[in-house]
Design goal:
The complex is a heterotrimer. Chain A is 32% helix and 25% strand. Chain A is built from twelve helices and 14 strands. Among the domains of chain C are: 16-22 and 467-622, Aldehyde Oxidoreductase, domain 4 (2-Layer Sandwich); 31-134 and 195-247 and 252-283, Aldehyde Oxidoreductase, domain 3, CATH 3.90.1170; 416-456 and 628-776, Aldehyde oxidase/xanthine dehydrogenase, molybdopterin binding domain (Aldehyde Oxidoreductase, domain 4, 2-Layer Sandwich), CATH 3.30.365.10. By secondary structure, chain C is an alpha+beta fold. The chains are: A alpha+beta, B alpha+beta, C alpha+beta.
């Protein structure tokens, strides 16, 4: 299955140890997080040079903890652990994450990890879109120390992220979000075991008088090499009071920034049509969590 | 290059020499002769290979055996005791939920993990718990009946 | 009919305990000492000549025990379909085990057997193949154009077959019609998705004999085809019957490449060879043929058919395989026969393309037709404001009529009308609103579809086997061994046939054990296909049990001093009719038959009559006396999200006349499972290929969309209208296929009722719905 080149298996005990292994083995090392994506990767032949499997389970990277008023999600936190964590269960600003994690089947939720999913840089995945909607960043640890990279900049192309040589992703950071923030996420799929034909994550912040101060609309799925921010839609919302009409206007504005692909799963026109519907629906859901019901 | 690893399967410790890329599915079927776990697609798409790791359902075809060291592995062979069937195995028989049976063991394990925490599951909850398990014979109908029956009878 | 003890009861599957604890009986579990793993090298080109092939480097890889290329393989042209003999005139023999011309991407060109699967894989990369790519065609229309690449010399314009049948006077019929409708409908290529992959183990003994284990629907068919393709006597091949297989649905109804290749590798290596296909390989091994069907239909004001014409173009792929017979079943049982019409004509074309080959799949040509026929009837009724139930009734056959296909038979039990009316009532059909009239973004609608006429097996069909046999053996503990060639592919054949034997012999179900069988030890049974096992093999089992019973009465008659004709078997007891106290346990009767002629007893020796000695057995091998028709109607309610085009199926009512229901939960299971396949066919399943390389783009479960538990409706009701079929075992007919024939048109009709959009192409994707609503 393309994996028979792998000769070594190791289990580093700290994040620093992982960096040392990466420095030692370079391209011949492959990091094993949950393993749900890795098998597919090997099957395509994309990792056929791999000689060493580095298992991250014991490197102390499983956590969901408060940091600087926001959250730090350890790279080895599974989907299930993240979904069951109190912040994700309870806080409306993280509802997009809760929504996104409803979709995978239990076996994937139990095994797939935050870090593996984000580092894969596959625009068809759901969690990265939800994390981008809530303005997440990653912590990259390398020989020269750690640095933060916003998710908007982290995804470069299909399977290509902004990590540099011997760097790896230790956690995902979610910022301290203002009060009256809420988010939502929807995925367009053919059946329950599907990669997104399209997915949408939105996030809004309202001030005390109900005016929208911040908005983020992110679309993934078959819309390009990386998930895309719908900045025109965001501009429509900022500074305005949410209404059914405003949401409709914002959803129409995605045409300016959305250039979906046509492939054997769906056409660009279909993706565009549903993108608008989903932007409207996710915005309505997010705003609904703040006690405002729109038509 | 084979390495010696130790795996706890159904409460028993096994020492096995295997390649680092061997999957848990391969180990169960080829090394240990535990044939109840099935290979339906070998790519995490069908659920026939479902086993439990520390009580959680996973696709054994996507678990590197070496990475399963230190975790409690449960396969279908491990859920009945001294010939006494697990309530789910009983309910699958009673409900007529078994046709060709190839998906059955994966379904039972996914359901077992689900019922270990679910209180009064709705029809939707049950269906979601087996959304990662494909069946071509039954339309899932009597499988859902069987899981509901087991949730009531425990 | 009198109350029965086993038949008709909600019994448990006899193999369920085994399957819930792991399942020992699958072919994937077969292991033999010294067994090698085989792998196939497959062509990356959809159409190419092989100029040179060199396996010598592969042979040298440590662990490789045999390499197979074209010169190693008998060049005997065969057809792989199990249910027709190799010598059948109507079947086209255009396959070779390995050929020097490849005609679809993925066609095997070489093979390796090695000690480990990884070594075999590595060895494939060392086989050197020089291809000369040829132009390829991927649609029947392209293939039939003048100047298109010729896939075979024997098929002009790549047309393998072009049958046509007419009845009455079509032209006059259309002249007399008050209304004429013309529409074209298209269905897609889908895969059976059996969960146990295609797998086999073949062991040669070095003297020209082969023993074969395979996940197959027909052990005798495999024996015959394998012997034919290898050019060896049939008696040299012994196929062991699998205890059960992990699904088939028609996808294991033909000899694949793996069995003859494993055989040749085993002969070469002198060791058993196992080949298990990967899921990718399975997706390109078998499929339901796509069909484009054009219907021209004339109706009269009174709602009766006066003229019907159809032309069907079937894409058979690189080899004919099932394409010839699928086309005929499609034309006759899909189009010409289900309804009465004085003037009709159908013409069909089976066309070669460089797509993958087709296989069998539940319904076998009828789902493609039913989608067209039942959609068009719905369109006709909508436009002319006819009641669609009344329309079916007006044009339906009736019970007692001569069978539309074979005048030797009558429709001896036929409750289509009752299925329609009872199904409609159970469903609430009268509450239907007009199309597209619902409010809101999510609109609901209801629809139904029928398969008014179907088969119970293949008696009367040209070139298709239809006979079954069974052996019954009674044991001294009162149990019964049933030896049959029938493969249980999950439908519950083992259980149903055991029920029939148990009922006939007056024993509990638990007393019947289906035993080991292989092609040397049991009589022929036609394959597990064509909805035939309950009816056809059931009759043979009943007869075999009856013949054992006869012997029981002979022996018991001596012991009870009664004439055999005065005895009955009930509750494991042989007793005199009318005086049950005058009897013996069945066990005691068998013990007597199996005991020594002279027994030592306390006061000396006891002699027992020689005539009563001998194992009590029954045997039968016969063809059924008819081909009775079941009838099926399915009602469906859907909800359509008019902003995204997504369709949810909310509830289903299925009314089916299958004669006596032998195993009610099993019958329900067939309906429920058939609906999963039908829903997939209707809304999401599609085997897609790259249109230049022919590579499959949907060869895994992520890309091939099959309904999960989330997409299936929770509300599925079965209404079984129990007619009594005189020629069937305990009144039974057949069940399996209509369950998959009716869902797609029922769903299509329900979608129309919901949103007023008619989609004439499967699958009905959300995108097609949005396009139909004018939103794209």
């Amino acid at each position: 299955m393309g994996m028979s080149g792998v000769k070594e298996f190791c289990r580093p005990q700290t994040a620093r140890d992982v960096v040392e292994l990466l420095e030692k083995y370079g391209d011949r090392a492959v990091l094993l997080a949950g393993g749900t994506f890795l098998h597919g990767l090997f099957a395509t032949g994309l990792s056929s040079g791999a000689k060493v499997l580095v298992d991250l389970q014991k490197a102390g990277l499983s956590y969901v903890k408060a940091r600087n008023g926001g959250l730090a999600l350890g790279a080895m936190t599974t989907f299930r652990e993240l979904a069951e964590s109190e912040p994700v269960q309870k806080r409306p600003e993280f509802a997009a994450i809760r929504d996104a994690l409803q979709y995978p089947p239990p076996q994937i939720r139990n095994q797939a990890t935050v870090g593996g999913c984000v580092a894969a840089a596959l625009p068809l995945f759901d969690l990265p879109v939800a994390l981008m909607a809530v303005d997440g960043s990653v912590t990259a640890l390398g020989p020269r120390g750690s640095r933060e990279v916003r998710l908007d900049k982290f995804f470069v192309d299909y399977f290509e992220n902004a990590l540099e040589t011997s760097e790896f992703l230790t956690d995902v950071l979610l910022p301290k979000l203002p009060p009256r923030s809420a988010s939502a996420f929807l995925k367009l799929e053919t059946n329950a075991n599907d990669l997104a034909l399209l997915n949408v994550g939105t996030h809004v912040t309202l001030d005390e008088s109900g005016i929208c101060r911040e908005a983020r609309v992110v679309i993934g799925g078959g819309v390009g090499k990386v998930p895309v921010r719908m900045v025109s839609a965001e501009s429509v919302l900022k500074g305005q009071r949410p209404s059914a009409k405003l949401l409709e206007e914002a959803s129409q504005a995605v045409s300016a920034d959305l250039h979906p692909v046509s492939d054997h799963r769906a056409s660009a026109q279909y993706r565009s049509a549903v993108a608008k519907v989903y932007v409207r629906r996710t915005l309505k859901r997010a705003i609904g969590q703040l006690g405002i019901e729109l038509d | 290059m084979k390495h010696l690893i130790s795996l706890e399967i159904n409460g028993e410790l096994h020492e096995i020499a295997l390649e680092p890329y061997a999957t848990l599915l391969q180990v169960l079927r080829e090394e240990l002769g535990l044939l109840g776990t099935k290979k339906g697609c070998d790519s995490g798409g069908c659920g026939c290979c479902t086993v439990l790791l520390d009580g959680l359902a996973v696709y054994s075809c996507m678990v590197f055996a070496a990475a399963a060291q230190g975790r409690k592995i449960t396969s279908i062979e491990g859920i009945s005791e001294n010939g006494k069937l697990d309530p789910l195995q009983e309910s699958f028989i009673q409900s007529g939920a078994v046709q060709c049976g190839f998906c059955t063991c994966g379904m039972i394990l996914a359901a077992k993990a689900f019922l270990s925490t679910a209180r009064s599951p709705s029809d939707q909850d049950i269906r979601q718990s087996i959304s990662g398990n494909l069946c071509r014979c039954t339309g899932y109908h009597k499988i859902v009946d069987a899981i509901r029956m087991a949730s009531v009878n425990r | 009919m009198s109350k029965m003890n086993v038949v008709g009861n909600r019994v448990l599957r006899t193999d369920a305990h085994d399957k819930v604890t792991g399942g020992k009986g699958y072919t994937v579990n077969v292991r033999l000492p010294g067994m090698l793993q085989g792998k196939l090298l497959r062509s990356p080109y959809p159409h190419a000549r092989i100029l040179r092939i060199d396996g010598s480097r592969a042979e040298k890889l440590p662990g490789v025990k045999a390499v197979l290329t074209t010169p190693d393989v008998p060049q005997i042209k065969y057809h792989p379909v199990y249910f027709a003999p190799s010598t059948a005139a109507s079947m086209i023999k255009d396959m070779l085990i390995l050929s020097d011309t490849v005609r679809f991407a993925g066609e095997p060109v070489a093979a390796v057997a090695a000690t480990h699967a990884e070594i075999a894989e590595e060895a494939l990369d060392l086989i050197h193949v020089e291809y000369e790519p040829l132009p390829a065609v991927f649609s029947p229309e392209e293939a039939m154009k003048p100047g298109a690449t010729q896939i075979y010399e024997h098929a002009t314009n790549n047309v393998a077959m072009n049958p046509a049948f007419s009845f009455g006077d079509l032209q006059r019929g259309f002249a007399e019609a008050d209304y004429v409708f013309e529409n074209t409908y298209e269905t897609q290529r889908v895969h059976t998705c059996y969960m146990e992959p295609r797998v086999c183990v073949v062991d040669s003994d070095g003297q020209g004999n082969l023993t074969v284990w395979s996940s197959t629907q027909h052990i005798f068919g495999l024996r015959e085809k394998l012997a034919f393709a290898l050019g060896i006597p049939v008696s040299n091949v012994r196929v062991v019957k699998p205890t059960y297989i992990g699904g088939g649905f028609g996808g294991k109804l033909d000899m694949g490449y793996i069995e003859p290749i494993a055989a040749l590798l085993s002969i070469k290596a002198g060791r058993p060879v196992r080949i298990e296909q990967t899921r990718y390989e399975d997706f390109i091994t078998t499929a339901r043929n796509p069909v484009k069907m054009h219907l021209k239909t004339g109706v009269k004001k009174d709602g009766t058919f006066i003229a019907r014409y159809a032309k069907s173009i079937l894409d058979t792929g690189a080899h004919t395989t099932h394409g010839a017979v699928v086309l005929m079943v499609h034309g006759f049982f899909g189009f010409l026969l289900p309804y009465r019409c004085p003037n009709s004509k159908w013409e069909g074309m089976t066309v070669y393309t460089n797509n993958i080959i087709g296989g069998g799949f539940r319904g076998y040509g009828a789902p493609q037709a039913a989608f067209a026929v039942e959609s068009q009837i719905d369109e006709i009724c909508e436009q002319l404001k006819f009641d669609p139930i009344e329309f079916r009734l007006k044009n339906a056959h009736t019970e007692g009529e001569q069978h539309p296909f074979d005048p030797n038979f009558k429709l001896s039990s036929y409750r289509f009308e009752e299925c329609l009316t009872r199904g409609a009532e159970e469903f609430g059909w009268s509450k239907r609103r007009s199309a597209g009239s619902a409010n809101g973004t999510k609109k609901r609608g209801i629809g139904f579809a029928c398969q008014p006429l179907w088969v119970s097996g293949c008696v009367g069909f040209p070139d298709i086997y239809e006979h079954s046999g069974a052996i019954v053996k009674l044991n001294v503990d009162g149990t019964v061994n049933l030896a049959i060639a029938t493969v249980d592919m999950g439908c519950g054949q083992n259980t149903v046939l055991s029920q029939i034997a148990a009922e006939e012999l007056g024993v509990p179900l638990s007393a019947v054990k289906v035993s080991y069988a292989d092609t040397d030890t049991v009589p022929f049974d036609a394959p597990s296909h064509a909805s035939r096992v309950t009816y056809s093999t059931g009759n043979a089992v009943k007869a075999a049990a009856g013949s054992a019973k006869k012997r029981v009465f002979e022996v018991a008659g001596g012991l009870l001093n009664a004439a055999p004709g005065d005895l009955e078997l009930l509750n494991s007891r042989v007793q005199v009719k009318g005086s049950p106290e005058n009897g013996l346990s069945l066990q005691d009767v068998v013990k007597r038959a199996e005991s020594p002629c002279v027994n030592m007893v306390p006061d000396g020796m006891q002699r027992t009559p020689l005539e009563e000695k001998g194992t009590i057995m029954g045997f039968a091998s016969l063809a059924p006396t008819s081909n009775p028709s079941p009838a099926a109607v399915q009602f469906v309610e859907v909800e359509v999200d008019t902003e995204t085009g997504e369709v949810k199926v909310l509830r289903v009512v299925y009314a089916h006349d299958i004669g006596k229901v032998i195993n009610p939960p099993g019958a329900e299971g067939q309906v429920e499972g058939g609906f999963q396949q039908g829903l997939g066919y209707a809304l999401m399943e599609n085997l897609v290929f790259d249109q230049s390389s022919g590579a499959c783009l949907s060869a895994d479960f992520l890309n091939y969309k099959m309904p999960t538990a989330m997409e299936m409706p929770a509300d599925i009701k079965c209404v079984f209208v129990e007619s009594e079929e005189p020629s069937g075992p305990f009144g039974a007919k057949s069940l399996a296929e209509p369950c998959l024939i009716v869902p797609a048109p029922a769903i299509a009709n329900a979608i129309y009722n919901a949103i007023g959009v008619r989609v004439r192409e499967l699958p009905i994707t959300p995108e097609k719905i949005l396009a139909g609503l004018g939103k794209l």
